[in-house]
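[job 0417] fold request received: Neurotransmitter-gated ion-channel transmembrane domain-containing protein
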Amino acid sequence: VTELEKVYFTGTRKLLEYQVLDITETAELYQNRSSQRVMIVLQNMYGYYISSTYVPTLLLVIISYLCFFFNIEDFTNRVMVCLTSMLVLAGLFAQVAAGLPRTSYLKLIDLWFIFCIITEFVMVSLLVLINSLKYMDQKNIRTVQ
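[job 0417] inference complete; emitting structure tokens
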């Protein structure tokens, strides 16, 4: 087995999602065949996911929560803001999931999106419930008078 000359990485070490930490090469002999193994060690740069996924989704959930502070008579705008936020969240989830490797298990980012979508669904349901209770209360007041 002959040794390979030193392998050099000439590209940039900081990529969008990963950083190249180390490159090693080894000569191997397997069933009378020689080969060279080049191993590239990558580190996931979590700052990319925080800035492009977690912060925007958290802001969308906060925007939906702020709908509870809208005027109670403005049901249409309250629900529209929440539903639009949920739609954007679902689109962002699809976009992020398409760029990640497929696995048979749930990743942390999947759990985060599921939590956000369920939270938004609960908020829309609460807005509808609040509106229904408000109109039922108004109806009861009218029948008493």
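[job 0417] notes: Helices lie at 46-66, 75-99, 108-144. The radius of gyration is 27 Å.
[job 0417] exit 0
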